[in-house]
Amino acid sequence: MKKFLFLLPFFALGACGDDEAKPEADDAKVVELKTFEDKLSYSFGVLDARKVTEARDENSGKLDRAMLLVGYKDGFKSGVRPGPEDPCIKTMESLFGAQGMDFNEAYLKEGSKCYGRFMAAQFYMQLESVSEVDRVNKDVLFKGFQEGLKGTDPAISKEEIESIIQAFDQEMQAKMMAEQE
User: Fold this and answer.
1) Are 19 and 74 in contact (CB under 8 A)?
2) What is the pLDDT of residues 49-59, one digit of tens each?
3) How far apart are CA 111 and CA 116, in angstroms?
4) What share of the chain is helix, strand, coil (3-state, %, to 5)?
5) What is the C-alpha to C-alpha distance for residues 105 and 111, in angstroms, rounded to an integer?
6) How far apart are CA 178 and CA 175, in angstroms?
7) pLDDT in tens, 9-60
8) 16-28 exposure pattern, b = at least 16 Cβ within 10 A, e = fewer
9) What beta strand segments (E) does 28-71 contain?
10) N-term to C-term CA, the chain
11) For residues 152 and 54, is the Cβ–Cβ distance under 8 A?
12) Taking the complete model, does pTM exceed 0.90, yes or no?
């Protein structure tokens, strides 16, 4: 039950390296949402992107969207556990300042990539904690994240996204209840 309560706030929402972003190639792909898992994966991506696009912090709007996507793709995998030795910690501190109140544009690209990496790693760990990683179609997740960062209308309506997440929440709640019995 504790695992479910850990995930609930996320679902109820309404990378460091030398890779460069190639958003043009990803933009050309049209996302096809044929299954519930595809719609769920896409919804997860859109909701994660909203954490950036709808953040009240003015610095979130300054982040490099293409590099956020590169970092997000790098961070959604097993074994990414940001810790004190992770070079991205220092990069993030250099970007936002020690208190998170500054914004040093010299670290914009690498910092944006690290930010995306941390977002995806946290989401991966949440899914892993309830054994649901395999349900996520990574390509569709990444497309949802990319389209969510654009701030345009997603491939499915906001209402449908909410309905999909609500259905997933109910599944997780039932799963946790069954595990307790």
Assistant:
1) yes
2) 999 999 888 88
3) 9
4) 70, 0, 30
5) 9
6) 5
7) 444 443 333 344 444 445 556 678 999 999 999 999 999 999 999 988 888 8
8) beeeebeeeebee
9) none
10) 11
11) no
12) no
